[in-house]
Amino acid sequence: MPLEGEVASMPWMPVLCINDLPSIIDGKSSDTTALSFLLKVKWILFNTYDKLEDEVINWMASQRPIRAIGPTVPSMYLDKMLEDDRDYGLSLFKQNADSCITWLDTKGSGSVVYVSFGSMASQGKEQMEELAWGLRKSNTHFMWVVRESKEKKIPSNFLEETSERGLVVSWCPQLEVLAHKAVGCFLTHCGWNSTLEALSLGVPMIAMPQFLDQTTNARFVEDVWRVGVRVKADEKGIDKKEEIEMCIREIMEGERGNEMKTNAQRWRELAKEAVTEGGSSFKNIEEFVTEILCS
């Protein structure tokens, strides 16, 4: 996609600044392999739902045979049609679910900031320190997922200074955590899976995107779906502790935070509606399966 100037305009999307676009789009790439493939397929299935991106989906469906079939989160968190469907059935890291949930059980409703940047994203030592002190300055309960390989980047005295308010773990069952009544917001890199899970479970977000589609998702979180705020990075691309603290307080304490929580609950109900029998995603899956069986 050729880019000119400081903004990009696409059908039925808000005007995006260049730094809102996925990092793989640099205006110079001429690789059209993926696009050529998409032009040949009969079905394109998206992990989203119609009412979340209705205008975009409608425009794209007029160009290519796309269907929204999401959110593809386990049944027990949305339609509850399958009682034993509670997780994705895999994890890249060791599991220690009980301690996380037991800790959350001791906290008040909506009082905890859940912090996780997914299984692939990595932050430098300076950014980890800024995040740590931002969490401490916010004076809020928090659960922070830090992979074992990154624990050395945490400031040496941070765990002692925040032991009464925080829990640092190497892994947690994200869906179960997001669904817990104690969680009041999700500080996230805005990878699509994490973003959609938060929307599906009605949790407001603080966006700290890094690369790929995360910057675009963060723009939608803040300005389109209005379920979160984006931390403003400095000139070196570092999210400073003061900005992180301000964003946490805005959602956890501010009036605007209450609006975001209301919006998040609305998107949750629309997600449930989409995957419930008769909903848009349910029908799209039925249509796809029927055609496969009859072909």
Layout of secondary structure:
Layout: E1 7-8, E2 16-17, H1 33-38, E3 44-46, H2 54-63, E4 66-68, H3 97-105, E5 112-116, H4 125-138, E6 141-145, H5 158-161, E7 166-169, H6 174-178, E8 183-188, H7 192-200, E9 205-207, H8 214-224, E10 228-230, H9 241-252, H10 255-275, H11 280-294
Parallel strand pairs: 3-4, 5-6, 5-8, 6-7, 8-9, 9-10
Antiparallel strand pairs: 1-2
Helix pairs in contact: 4-9, 9-10
Describe this structure in words.
With 295 residues, this protein is of the alpha/beta class. It has a domain at 92-271: Rossmann fold, CATH 3.40.50.2000. Helix content is 39%, strand content 12%. The protein has 11 helices and 10 strands. A 6-stranded parallel sheet has the order 7-6-5-8-9-10, sandwiched between helices. The longest helix is centred in the last third of the chain and has 21 residues, at 255-275. The radius of gyration is 20 Å and the shape is globular.
Features:
11 helices, UDP-glycosyltransferase activity, two-stranded antiparallel ribbon, 295 residues, Rossmann fold, transferase, 6-stranded parallel beta sheet, 39% helix, glycosyltransferase, single chain, UDP_glycos_trans_CS, 12% strand, alpha/beta, UDP_glucos_trans
What is the CATH first-level class name of one domain? Alpha Beta
Assembly state of the chains shown: single chain
The count of β-strands is 10
- What's the overall average pLDDT, rounded? 88
The succession of helices and strands, N to C, reads: EEHEHEHEHEHEHEHEHEHHH
Shape: globular
Nearest-angstrom radius of gyration?
20 Å
Give the termini separation. 35 Å
Q: Architecture of one domain, according to CATH? A: 3-Layer(aba) Sandwich
- Order of strands across the biggest sheet? 7-6-5-8-9-10
GO molecular function, one term: UDP-glycosyltransferase activity
Keywords: Glycosyltransferase, Transferase
InterPro entries: UDP_glucos_trans, UDP_glycos_trans_CS
Pfam family, one: UDPGT
